[in-house]
Amino acid sequence: MPLGCYVHDCCFLPNVLESRVIYLSQRPTRVFFFCHICRANSYGSHVSISMASMVGGRATLPCLLPRAGDSAVAGTRHVQWAIAFDTVFERRGGEMWQHEDYEGRLTLPEDRLRTGNCSLTIDDVQVRDAGRYDIYTVTARRGSTNTRSFVQTVELSVQDHADSHLCRLGEDAVLQLYTPRSAAVLFQPRNASGWSILWMRAKAISPKLEYNSILEVLTMRRMEASDEGAYKILDRQQHTVGTVQLYVDTRPLRVTRVSVATAGASVTNWSAPTHVTLLFLCSQTFQML
Question: Picking from 84-88, 116-120, 134-138, which range would have the lowest pLDDT averaged per residue?
Fold first, then answer.
């Protein structure tokens, strides 16, 4: 674990699903990183890059450093990515640390860092990942003094999904959850103002729902007219991951039945479109003649 002081930030939010208040998380918030850093430098003019990602996608925060002439120095590059006062990722040669909120989702290979490419890849991007990321290089000096130099800023914005689907009455509908960190699905019927819980992770609510943990989808069996409406996917922090407007076509299937008499043959109960059926029959009649 890197040097620094932590305080516990207890986060309470009102539960939109019920009338009580629920405890969401107790996340250590970094107050100081290198307590022994006494000097900060900058690479020159402030560089800021803006980029966007969808929830559940992959985002690579770009950054290139000047190539080090000394291979020994290049092999022990020390970089730090931080958002606000919170350090999210740090690598020094083969040593690596990442914040628990990003555990298993951050990548910056050592061999890439040796070449000066310190771009940080975030997998399974979450709504809470949005923000301003600052990158620093840390240079060891004699004694206990290190120098942290600011390199650049990357502004990451995260967008939730918005989609719509049309399915027929009695058919199955597939609802994308977009990320393994989706925690609940709310449903708002058409022409209604309230939301109800349709699904919660690890909790069966409706026998009509089938959850696929590999594809991260919900299959809703035998859609009815009352299933038409808006479906909102939430994460564990109750951020909106995506909203899907689902329409149910209740019109009966139109089946065309044709009865045509030909020389020595009678064809009935064809369900293909009329013009296609007549074209086929005319072709067969011409061949018989």
Answer: 84-88
Domains of the chain in start order, with CATH, are 5-159 (2.60.40.10), 161-249 (2.60.40.10), 257-289 (no CATH)
- Residue whose tokens read 């803006």: 50
CA distances from 35 to 6, 39, 104, 139, 212 (A): 12, 11, 26, 14, 47
| CA-only gyration radius of the chain, Å | 29
The DSSP symbol for 221 reads P
- Rounded to whole angstroms, the Cα distance separating 168 from 220 reads 12
Which residues are CB-contacts of 174 (< 8 A; sequence separation ≥ 6)? 217, 218, 219, 220
Q: Tokens at residue 229, please?
A: 């409406």
The CA angle 124-229-240, to the nearest 5 degrees, is 25
* Separation between Cα atoms, residue 217 and residue 32, nearest integer Å: 41
In the structure encoding, which two tokens stand for residue 257, read together? 């039945």
pTM of the shown model: 0.70
Environment class of 260 (CB within 10 Å of its CB; exposed 0-12, middle 13-18, buried 19+): middle
Do 143 and 206 contact (CB within 8 A), yes or no?
Answer: no
* Cβ atoms of residues 163 and 244 within 8 Å: yes
Taking a C-beta distance cutoff of 8 angstroms, is the pair 132, 84 a contact? Answer: yes
Average pLDDT over residues 47-76: 80
- Strand 161-168 relative to strand 240-249, pairing: parallel
Say how far apart CA 202 and CA 189 lie, in whole Å: 24
Alpha helices in the chain (DSSP H): 71-75, 110-114, 274-288
Is the model's pLDDT at 141 over the cut of 90? no
Find, among 166, 157, 177, the residue nearest to 232 by Cα.
Answer: 177
Q: What is the pLDDT of residue 253?
A: 72
